[in-house]
Amino acid sequence: MSLKQQIDADIKQAMLAKNQDKLRALRAVKSMILLEETKEGQSGDLKPEDETKILTKAVKQRKDSADIYRQQNRADLLAVEETEIAVIEQYLPKQLSEDELKAKLQAIMTRLGASVPSDLGKVMGAASKELAGQADGKAISAMVKQLLQ
Predict the structure, then answer these.
(1) pTM for the full model?
(2) In 10 A of CB 2, how many CB atoms?
(3) Given Cys at both, which of 77, 118, 121, 142 links 69, Cβ 3.0 to 4.6 Å?
(4) Which of 36, 81, 33 is nearest to 60 (CA)?
(5) Mean pLDDT by 10-residue block, N- to C-terminus, for the chain (149 residues)?
(6) Are 133 and 94 in contact, with CB atoms under 8 Å apart?
């Protein structure tokens, strides 16, 4: 079952359960999927990696909003964002722990022969592709910088 079909089925379940928080998050994701599918040059159905990018982008947008609401002491809006993050993350691949991320990055660096800070771009390019959806870009960047020192 594709992500779009899974989202549609879960929207129906959320409607029947009258779960407004889950429904709002799922509708936002469905909207992002539909926008991506109807982009110029798209051939219809999305590839799994494109679906992961969409979900990652949705989570990142909500985390950024949550940070702003936290700074402004808006607990009501913060709770909405955190609820939506929790719903969307259910559809993402399991996130890597810090130790798992470090091990994978060390393997990538060994394979590429990277050992000095000037290799950052080369490592980030490969790591971003291989670890898409499994780790946040900021976390990958911070860990690579730490490992290349």
Answers:
(1) 0.76
(2) 12
(3) 77
(4) 81
(5) 89 95 94 87 77 89 95 95 94 87 90 86 87 82 87
(6) no
